[in-house]
Amino acid sequence: MPNKIRAAITGVHGWVPEDKLTNFDLEKMVDTNDEWITSRTGIKERRILRKPGWATSDMCAEAVKGLLEKTGTRPEEVEMLIIGTITGDMIFPDTANTVCDKIGAKNAFGYDINAACSGFLYALATGAQFVANETYKKVVVVGADMMSSIIDYTDRNTCVIFGDGAAAVLLEPRADGTGIQDFVLRADGSGREFLFMKSGGSKSPPTPETVANREHFVYQDGKRVFKYAVEGMVTTVREVLKRNQLDVGDIDWVIPHQANMRIINSVAENLKVPMEKVTINISKYGNTTAGTLGLCMWEYEDRFKKGDNIILTAFGGGFTWGSLYLKWAY
Ligand code: COA
């Protein structure tokens, strides 16, 4: 019997801005210090997009152009492009269409998915369906956020955490057992009051008052988010392992959302996964929201082997969260 067709990641590429914002820079901006930020978050520096006129679509376009070159794919071959982001260039039109135009993907359609830090995971699970059911053969999935555009650099609770970045993967069909095997995605809208941007949407359109009250920035109840993040990632990883009759020992790599080093440590500890199997780059980039999972994959790509069992897990605003199990394809 022929093997089932699955969507496999056949290439990954990331892009981050050159400009760095270090903990020492932040010491000059708000009442904080390198020791506090390092011990509480594990972050040393983040990248900030300061190129005049550049926005999320430009970071995505750079990541996708690199991906297409690396995988020998012509832009016209891309059939679908999905972007996980909460910092699209504009409220409409969506950023996926802009990116298709910027990279010359004339035959593609696409859309953005708003699931905050789980954006890449949601987009990956979505794109994989179109490949696994044989509708399309080349789907690009991007996770990208220009968090610097919605961060209040006078608020020490949030400005030390976030950074800018983008990463893209190519999904193609494979019948050799590799590719995306399973996922568990969750959402709980009652979490919306703990991590959100108050104004700018239809509930509270922009006015001089909303701007004066600094309502167009990220607000979060860090402690609560921390607790739910650990719980959500651990529970869904366990669920996906159980559904696939896997033990923790069968896992070669865990790619966790890079929200806070203490969250990553706590997830690994709860799952009893040794830290050598956990991908980490938070010290360099901070939390790039939908960018983190792809950027980790990009950095660790050389260490992955064909057939490796990899678990991706994320938690973000919404609340949204989940875990995805794949077998590395190359
Ligand atoms: N520098 C110095 N002190 C700071 C600070 C900073 N950048 N940010 C907060 N503090 C202060 C607080 O004001 C508080 O002071 P107080 O005790 O006088 O009130 C103290 O440090 C402790 O704050 P607390 O919020 O309890 O710290 P924490 O250990 O929970 O760490 C976060 C704060 C934000 C780093 C942490 O809660 C976190 O990472 N949460 C998850 C955030 C996240 O990942 N969000 C993205 C979506 S997944």
Rg calc: 19 Å
Helix content: 25-40%
* CATH level 4 superfamily of the largest domain: Thiolase/Chalcone synthase
User: What is the annotated CATH architecture of the largest domain?
Assistant: 3-Layer(aba) Sandwich
Which stretches are low in confidence, meaning pLDDT under 50 for 5 or more residues running?
A: none
Structural class: alpha/beta
Question: Can you walk through the features of this model?
Answer:
- This protein is α/β, with parallel strands linked by helices.
- The protein has two domains: 172 residues, 3-Layer(aba) Sandwich (Peroxisomal Thiolase, Chain A, domain 1), CATH 3.40.47.10; 147 residues, Peroxisomal Thiolase, Chain A, domain 1 (3-Layer(aba) Sandwich).
- Helix content is 32%, strand content 24%.
- It has eleven helices and 13 strands.
- The strands form four sheets. The protein has a five-stranded mixed β-sheet, with helices on both faces. A four-stranded mixed β-sheet has the order 8-13-12-11, with helices on both faces.
- Helix 3 crosses helix 4.
- The protein is globular.
- It starts with 5 loop residues before the first strand and ends with a strand.
- The model has no long low-confidence stretch (mean pLDDT 97).
- The structure holds coenzyme A.
Summarize the structure.
By secondary structure, the chain is an alpha/beta fold. The chain is built from 11 helices and 13 strands. The mean pLDDT is 97.
